[in-house]
Design brief:
362 residues; alpha+beta; Methane Monooxygenase Hydroxylase, Chain G, domain 1; Alpha-Beta Plaits; Double Stranded RNA Binding Domain; eight-stranded mixed beta sheet; three-stranded antiparallel beta sheet; 10 helices; globular
């Protein structure tokens, strides 16, 4: 039983260190504060704010109970292993396997400690130059991200979609909802490059295609990004996408122009003009929030001498399907030989490598 005892003791040490890093006492204090807010008699005077407060209570309770339950299970397993009763080995081996996996998962969770990491994400894919070839690549990425989200039980809502002229996707905007959606997906922001034998080339020559992926944190606090009404120009038009005759007949699609920055947002996937307008405002807030962060990063980076602007040329990942198969991330050097597995949504290795890369000393 000594081998099992050592594994459990190692997990106990890891968890105690993680608990210190997370600040469990700080989380408990935050929960007490939010619970006080939730008990105020005028809570439901502002329904939207009440829902945010209750969500905070639930999220903090889940986080605290998750750490406490795992600590309790490790302590129970350690006590059993120290009994040196070999009849308990099968049961303990099974529990140790589960504990190893859960401790590893908790280690990853602690890497997601950014301000917006726990929240939802807005994911946008834009095909690069190259017509049908590039549009097809954007649709392959669209499928990859939707499969990954489905595997992790995230909810996805397509907010805007523009099909390619002949096939594929010209651009798509997706709201990905669920715990740590942004924290996980932020690794995907940048240019994705595909090398393959083109299915659209009669000579079956090798082609290189590019697509830009945007990942924005959902701006849930309206006070963080204030948009005066006079800063926005709103246009409505008939939807060009699928959606039935009602969408085609009525001007339900919405285009917002943010005059100070020139940012344009369109939403046309809902039948209701009001819903499209709300979605467009949500995306605009997130884009402005991201712009604000980029400016802050630029200022800090220029002071440190390390700022590099994210542009089309700065590809983050290559997907090679010919003459060999490989997917390689150029930031972390992490690579996988099974490209189809990655394109089927197998992104976890890349996400984990990127999170560790962010924490590594530069």
């Amino acid at each position: 039983m000594q081998d099992l005892t050592e594994q459990i003791a190692s997990n106990k040490q890891k968890i105690e260190e993680l608990v210190r890093n997370v600040g469990l006492d700080r989380l408990r204090a935050s929960l007490a504060e939010v619970q006080n807010e939730a008990q105020k008699p005028d809570l439901w005077d502002d329904r939207e704010n009440a829902q945010k407060i209750l969500k905070q209570v639930n999220d903090l309770q889940d986080e605290i109970s998750g750490w406490e339950n795992l600590r309790a299970r490790i302590n129970d397993a350690l006590e059993l292993s120290q009994l040196n009763d070999e009849t308990l080995r099968p049961e303990l081996e099974q529990e140790v396997t589960l504990l190893n996996k859960e401790v590893e998962q908790k280690e990853l969770t602690t890497l997601l400690s950014g301000k917006y990491d726990m929240g939802n994400a807005i994911l946008a894919i834009h095909a690069g130059a190259g017509g049908t070839e590039a549009h097809d690549w954007a649709s392959i990425l669209q499928r990859m991200f939707l499969r990954w989200a489905e595997d992790h039980r995230y909810s996805c809502e397509i907010m805007d979609f523009t099909p390619g002229e002949e096939a594929g996707t010209k651009s798509i905007t997706i709201n990905v909802s669920g715990k740590y959606a942004y924290g996980n997906l932020k690794s995907e922001k940048g240019t994705h490059r595909l090398v393959r034998l083109s299915p659209f080339d009669s000579a079956h020559r090798r082609h290189t295609s590019f697509a830009m992926v945007e990942v924005l944190p959902e701006a849930v606090d309206d006070n963080e990004i204030e948009i005066p009404p006079e800063d926005i120009r709103i246009d409505v038009f008939k939807s060009s996408g699928a959606g039935g005759q009602n969408v085609q007949k009525n001007s339900t699609a919405v285009r917002l122009l943010h005059i100070p920055t020139g940012i344009i947002v369109t939403c046309q996937n809902e039948r209701s003009q009001t819903q499209n307008r709300e979605n467009a405002m949500k995306v605009l807030r997130s884009r402005l929030l991201d712009l604000k962060h980029q400016e802050q990063e630029k200022e800090l980076g220029e002071l440190r001498g390390e700022y590099v602007k994210a542009e089309w040329g700065s590809q983050i990942r290559s997907y090679v399907l010919h003459p060999y198969q490989m997917v390689k991330d150029h930031r972390t050097e992490y690579e996988v030989g099974n490209a189809q597995m990655v394109l089927d949504g197998g992104l976890d290795g890349f996400i984990e490598a990127y999170l560790k890369y962010l924490r590594a000393p530069k």
